[in-house]
Fold this sequence. Notes:
Blueprint (H helix, E strand, L loop, with lengths): L1 E7 L4 E7 L7 H11 L2 H8 L7 H11 L7 E5 L5 H10 L11 E5 L10 E4 L7 H11 L4 E6 L9 H22 E12 L4 H9 L2 E7 L10 E9 L7
Parallel strand pairs: 3-4, 3-6, 4-5, 6-7
Antiparallel strand pairs: 1-2, 7-9, 8-9
Bound molecules: S-adenosylmethionine (SAM).
The site of S-adenosylmethionine has 23 residues, from helix 4.
Amino acid sequence: xxxxxxxxxxxxxxxxxxxxxxxxxxxxxxxxxxxxxxxxxxxxxxxxxxxxxxxxxxxxxxxxxxxxxxxxxxxxxxxxxxxxxxxxxxxxxxxxxxxxxxxxxxxxxxxxxxxxxxxxxxxxxxxxxxxxxxxxxxxxxxxxxxxxxxxxxxxxxxxxxxxxxxxxxxxxxxxxxxxxxxxxxxxxxxxxxxxxxxxxxxxxxxxxxxxxxxxxxxxxxxxxxxxxxxxxxxxxxxxxx
Length: 241
Ligand SMILES: C[S@@+](CC[C@H](N)C(=O)[O-])C[C@H]1O[C@@H](n2cnc3c(N)ncnc32)[C@H](O)[C@@H]1O
């Protein structure tokens, strides 16, 4: 059960939803529940049938930068529960529901991912492992990638420096894969947590992509350290004989 409490910010009257069945729950769980109930993106995700609110981060980033197009080949790393994959399927027409070029969307996650029409999903697989990447190559069947997405996040240890190092390792693993597997002109979008290694990661992405932008979408919670790095215009790998 929830109750609504009216409060005013001076400009607008808001109704804050306060859950009442919190007895015995930890403070962190109480805070999480209150935040979920008051988050407009959670409500919107339910209404639009997205598997989670993260969908709106990708929607917002793509609305402003237009890199997902019908007919493209996309990999979504850290795909569970699947909302980014849903957005990619729709925008690349991977389910063939629009009379446009049909794309390919592959999603991979360490966790199970429930089936999603139009997407090829690799659940219970660690993206950083060689065998997982070989599995992706098999699905690609010699095609190259137009867009590489990563919303991967390691389990937080609570030790900031360690968490930062872990997410950067994931980003570098995605960058390495993207460099080997992308079409010229391709796009890379990776999630990072703000911190020490981010400027170096930006510089490293710039070695391979024409433009790099740091993005904090409105849908990303303001108290979260997450940011997204968008690399546009993959320069291609120069092979010398
Ligand atoms: C924030 S969630 C992704 C949400 C997703 N973009 C969506 O919209 O539904 C981060 C995901 O990264 C996954 N992850 C973390 N490390 C991973 C790894 N090494 N390989 C594959 N997935 C990983 C986690 O299991 C988790 O599901």
